[in-house]
Amino acid sequence: MGCRNLFFAAVISFSAALITYNIIISANASLNQEFPGLSATKSSVDPIIRMPTKKTRRRLFHTAVTASDSIYNTWQSRVMYYWFKQQKLRHPNSDMGGFTRILHTGNPDPFMDEIPTFVANPLPDGIDQGYIVLNRPWAFVQWLQQVNIEEDYILMSEPDHILVKPIPNLSRDGLGAAFPFFYIEPKKYEKVLRKFFPEERGPITNIDPIGNSPVIVGKDALKKIAPTWMNVSLAMKKDPEADKAFGWVLEMYAYAVASAFHGVGNILYKEFMIQPPWDTTIGKSYIIHYTYGCDYDLQGKMTYGKIGEWRFDKRSYDNVWPPRNLSLPPPGVPESVVTLVKMVNEATANIPNWGS
């Protein structure tokens, strides 16, 4: 009996000693528990395997601007190209590719080295009937036929466009991207337009309320559209009813018809551009189109239809170069007008030999 008690006492003492030993070892042991064979220096956390990222292919577009060699068109083209270069320089990963001024005079001018230029032939004498804009579609036809354009898309722009930010490629899924003009009204002129867009081509609503600019469109699509645009423009000009109905926006209607004729619809982007003074803020827009005169009194109130105490109107400089450092608008004039004048001033201050 005594031996038996002695045995149990020994077992209990040994167990207590073993538990105490394990506690001491556990307290000093590292919490890092490895799989067999792994180095104790490696982390137990599974490494993150980075999946390869898919690079988005840039959908570059080529910017094309048609112009004559008049002072009026030339100073606007120089300002436009200055801001094109600035936006590309400041945003090198944008969708903006190359640039071409399509000069439809048939002869080079002194600014060929400053602005990348393609010289197109004008229409034969008398064909445009004094409506010089008819040279635009004919100039595009020549450029598209004769030049190897690297980009897959074309932005048709104008000399009186100023880029306030880089333009992304807004076209999608075979559709062009265009600005909707409130004064292009296909439904209102359906009777006239049916002469050039017959009913078998589809409903009149297939004709979008656009002009040719600003428009971003696939290069291959434009190669089909441009000859039709030219032919429809000439046919409209020869048609007294169409000529009277469409007036100075005739070739805009002709482009809209040609685009619909070839089944190229357009995504309409109201924020593509603004037109001061009617649009007062820049917002999300990419282009300032300064087609309208901006007239204000010294209190910043618009005096449209009456020459203001302060004014900026591109037509004031149809035969002369605008001076550097134009006076800024008085307080109260909208942001869009202030930005326009500041951007013209920056361009003229930095373009060499301005006014020559």
Salient structural properties:
three-stranded mixed β-sheet, globular, alpha/beta
Question: Can you walk through the features of this model?
Answer:
34% of the residues are buried. Helix content is 33%, strand content 13%. The chain has helices at residues 2-28, 71-90, 135-146, 190-193, 219-238, 240-246, 250-261, 335-350, and strands at residues 61-67, 96-103, 117-119, 153-157, 161-163, 176-178, 215-218, 266-268, 273-274, 287-289, 294-296, 310-312. It contains eight helices and twelve strands. The protein starts with a helix and ends in a 6-residue tail after the last helix.
| Biggest sheet architecture | 7 strands, mixed
Approximate helicity band: 25-40%
Describe the strand arrangement of the main beta sheet, using strand numbers.
Answer: 3-2-1-4-7-6-8
Sequence of secondary-structure elements: HEHEEHEEEHEHHHEEEEEH
DSSP strand tally? 12
Unreliable residue runs:
1-49
Distance between the termini: 126 Å
What structural class do the secondary elements suggest? alpha/beta
Strand content: 5-15%
**Rg computed from alpha carbons, rounded to a whole number of angstroms:** 34 Å
**Global morphology:** globular
Q: Overall pLDDT, averaged?
A: 88
How many DSSP H or I helices? 8
Helices and strands in order:
Blueprint: H1 2-28, E1 61-67, H2 71-90, E2 96-103, E3 117-119, H3 135-146, E4 153-157, E5 161-163, E6 176-178, H4 190-193, E7 215-218, H5 219-238, H6 240-246, H7 250-261, E8 266-268, E9 273-274, E10 287-289, E11 294-296, E12 310-312, H8 335-350
Parallel strand pairs: 1-2, 1-4, 2-3, 6-8, 9-10
Antiparallel strand pairs: 4-7, 5-10, 6-7, 11-12
Helix pairs in contact: 2-8, 3-5, 5-7
Subcellular location: Membrane
Membrane topology: Single-pass membrane protein
Keywords: Glycosyltransferase, Membrane, Transferase, Transmembrane, Transmembrane helix
